[in-house]
Amino acid sequence: MDEVPELVPAADDPYARPRIPLTLLTGYLGAGKSTLLEYILTADHGYRIAVCMNDFGDTTDIEAKSLTLCDPSTGEQSTSFLSLPNGCLCCSVKDLGIAAIEEMVVNQRDKVDWVMVELTGVADPGPIAKSFWENEEMGDLVLDGIVCVVDSKNFLKQLDDNRPGEINEAQRQLAASDVILLNKVDLVDAAQLDKVRSRVTAINPTLRIHDTVKGNMPLDRIFNLHAYSKGKFDTVHDHPSHVNSISTVLIPLPRLTPTQWSRLNLFLENVLWTGKLDGVDINVLRTKGLIHLDDGREMVLQGVMDIFEIKQSSEPDEAAPGKIVFIGRGVQDLKPALISFVDL
Amino acid sequence: MIKCAGCQEKEASRLECPKCKKLGIAGSFFCTQDCFKKYWNDHKVIHDIINIAAKAEEEKSATIPPNMRNYAFTGTIRPVYPLSPYREVPKHIQRPDYADDPRGVSACEMAERRTIQVCTPQEIEGIRKVCRLSRDVLDIIASHVRPGITTDELDRICHEECIKRDAYPSPLNYNRFPKSVCTSINEVICHGIPDQRPLVEGDIINLDVSLYHGGFHGDVNGTYPVGKVDEESAELMATTKRSMEAAIAICKPGVAYRDIGNKIEEIIKPKGYGIVRRYTGHGIHHLFHCLPNIAHYGGSKTPGKMEVGHVFTIEPMINLGTENLTHWKDDWTAVTLDGRRSAQFEETILITENGAEILTRYSKNKKKKKKTAGGQAANGVADGDDTPEGAATPTAAQAAQGVESLKVE
């Protein structure tokens, strides 16, 4: 019998703007970000990648920043400086650096499948991730995820770097990331590596961990994470919090009644938008959640710092347990507060 | 066989008319020099036609700035240059910080706080005053909208009306915007620069007026028909205004800012129009643009809730077709990507105990003003009573009515 061909969609809207995924790359100076980028620009992986390598993080100065493109078919690289796009000085675009990257990528749309932006070693990726994620609504770049590269040998020292009253960058980078690459694993023994792993998991148990040497690994480990759109993430358990340290709290959720559902929304608004719990400052850096409702709907919660979004899941999974995860400082207090506010 | 361009019978040689070659006309091959000579008088007409066409093209683009002559315009509107000279603001008028900055940058705005300002009663009094002045100036400019008037002339009127009121026209030199008002025609979404183009019967034009007076900015805009406009445009304008009114009507303390966009989308989506995403509403007080950002589309991640004393604009830009846009190469003019029309309405509002006060809309009838001050401002929306009474001229009143009067037509 003849095979019936698949129906094809009608011609695309000629005025639609295709969206290009973007990965943020964070990590200390010397962790191996540049080696990883070098690998990404030269390895044979089939992606046409645009890389912004100039230590992105400063929102006002875009003049010295450039974008390098690689063409996998020829292996050729080309680099050009970013320029301010037309009409972006008005109230719409919040971050000129983002506007400049977007403009350049959009102008070379047929040459770019993926964008990688390298952040400075000392940058807190949280606010930058927030800007890119906010900009997604009105722009052409879609934040896929944040990848953190760490030097397995020095990472524990960096995590313990004590800053009175504030959270150090290494911890902030861990909190904001979706994937961590433990680099230079050839330079440490198994016991040291285990220690690093357990510290990483203690701070952010939702992280996917991969070992690498010289940044070498399959790109599918850092691409197509959909970290800001999908509700799937692995978590183990919550960990006790240290002073001046980031930790994660996991709150299991039953199926919610409509009342509980609206109370939960109100709780998130109250805590995340104000940064306060019962009048006390609370520092949430990342929020994730999967919520099952009485009526059978499954909702996905995503949040960075004070902004969050709840969307209905496109691929509901009855078996995946409902839960909310907060990553940040002082987040342990959120668990009893949420349970009582939502009346679980 | 390629036939001779002269006799049209014999096979052409490789000999080509030199003039055609120069003009870029391909295929003018002749069989012999004699034949070329014989048919010269008939042939040379082709040169004249091409020359005339080229000249017409040149004349047409003479008023387009050189950097845009090869630009792929999305619609039919073109910039008509040169712009008129910079209009001075007398020195006795208080100027915002960006007015004299070479790059037009507002240092105050750059140093903006990360939270939404709660305005004090004194500040609100100042903002209310400048908002009313802004409304007055908008109504006056709108009364001059007619076929034949240039947008530069509208800019002159705006500039002079601001000065009469001891106010600085906020757009002037803001990030180097060259004029005192934004005039956005047809497919121009916003930030159109007033130039020498005369308005044409059937155009729709948005006038975006902002004033700076007493240390505060006010911001208001409206889209107006030029003469009689087609039904599609009238419907677009009416729906856009309706969406803004509906969004204002939900504003009160405790309402999430992102509900504004959800409300607008509820009204716009069924019509199939596009909601512009690139440009948002904004907080306004001693700063021209600041927090909160007001998304006009649904499902935004905008954080925060309204509180008493917050002042911001709601200014949806709605397109007949695609929501996507591009910019002319003048740093400002935002146009629809498909070249179809766009409309916009804007008011500056204040969150009050009971709802919202539309600061850029007030009744000039004293009795009514009292009632408004009594805290029933939000009702003004429901009444649809937005026509300033006793406006400058009857045409001003007509123009202010704008969309409503269109429905009658």
TrEMBL record, chain A:
It catalyses: GTP + H2O = GDP + phosphate + H(+). The keyword Methyltransferase does not apply. One of its GO terms (cellular component) is cytoplasm. Residues 258-332 form the CobW C-terminal domain. InterPro entries: CobW-likC_sf, CobW-like_C, CobW/HypB/UreG_nucleotide-bd, P-loop_NTPase, Zinc-reg_GTPase_activator. The keyword Chaperone applies. Pfam families: cobW (PF02492), CobW_C (PF07683). GO terms for molecular function: GTP binding; hydrolase activity. Residues 21-209 form the CobW/HypB/UreG nucleotide-binding domain. Keywords: Chaperone, GTP-binding, Hydrolase, Nucleotide-binding, Zinc. Belongs to the SIMIBI class G3E GTPase family. ZNG1 subfamily. This is CobW/HypB/UreG, nucleotide-binding domain-domain-containing protein.
UniProtKB/TrEMBL annotation, chain B:
GO terms for biological process: proteolysis. It catalyses: Release of N-terminal amino acids, preferentially methionine, from peptides and arylamides. The keyword Metal-binding applies. Zn(2+) 3 binds at residues 208, 219, 346. Residues 1-54 form the C6H2-type domain. It is found in: Cytoplasm. Its EC number is 3.4.11.18. It comes from the Eukaryota. It is an enzyme of class 3 (hydrolase). GO terms for cellular component: cytosol. Residues 364-409 are annotated as: Disordered. The keyword Protease applies. Cotranslationally removes the N-terminal methionine from nascent proteins. The N-terminal methionine is often cleaved when the second residue in the primary sequence is small and uncharged (Met-Ala-, Cys, Gly, Pro, Ser, Thr, or Val). Belongs to the peptidase M24A family. Methionine aminopeptidase type 1 subfamily. Associates with the 60S ribosomal subunit of the 80S translational complex. This is Methionine aminopeptidase. It comes from Kockovaella imperatae. The lineage of its organism: Eukaryota, Fungi, Dikarya, Basidiomycota, Agaricomycotina.
